[in-house]
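Our consortium's second objective concerns turning raw sequence data into structural hypotheses that experimental partners can test. To show how far this objective has progressed, the report includes one record in full. It was chosen at random from the queue rather than selected for favorable results. The single chain below, 218 residues long, was entered without modification.
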Amino acid sequence: MNLKESIKIVNANLIFVPLLALSSIFIFPSYFMFLVILMFVLDPIAYGKLVGETIDLPKTTWCSLFNVHWKNYLVVGIITGSPLIIMSFFYDDMNYIQKTTIKNLLGFIISCLTIYIWPLVFINKEIKPPIFQGINILLKNIRISTPLILITFFMFALKFLVELSLIKLMPLTSFKVFLIFIAPRTINVYLEFIILTSATMFIKEHANKLINQQELNE
C-alpha cells in the first residue's frame, strides 16, 4: 500500500475535506435537509475525482462527475447502509452506550468490507459486480489490507469516543460543536480519502499485474 502517494493525491484535493466534514454533521435541525443534499452532491464528485486522478483518467468537470456517478453511489450506499438501517429498529430497547457501541461496531465492519467496493464502483461505473469483487479482493488480501483496516478502526474509535463524550458535554456551545464534531469529522474524512485512493492504487496495480501475466502467457 503506497500511503505516501495516496496522501499526495488527497492533499491536492483538500477542498473536499472541510466541505464533506461540514455536510455530514447532522446536528443542526434547521439545515438538516440542506446538509443531506450537499453531502449527496459532493460525495460522488469527490470520490469520482479522487479515483479518476489515482488511475490517471482525463480531468473532467464536477457536473460530469456527478452525472456519471450519482446513481451508482446512491444505490450502493443504500445497499451497504441497509444493515445499519435495519439495526436502528432495535435501538429502542437499548441504552445510549449500547446503541453507540453496536452502531459503530457495525459501521466498522461495513467500512472494512467496502474498502475495495467503492473504488470499483467508481472505476467500473457499475453496482452489483463491484460489491462481490470488492469483498473478494479484501478476503484474498487481508494481510496487505491491514493498514487500511487499522485506519478504519481508528476512524470508528474516534467517532465512538466523540459520541460517548456527548453525555458529559451537554448543552452544546459553538466551541464544543467544533471540538466534538467538526474537528474529528474532518480528520475522518481525510483518512477516508486516503483509504479510497490507496485501495484504488492497489486495484490498479493488481489489474496491471494480471494484464502483464496474460501477455506473458500469450
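The partners drew two points from this record. The first helix runs from residue 3 to 11. The CA atoms of residues 96 and 167 lie 9 Å apart. Both points have been shared with the crystallography group to help prioritize constructs.
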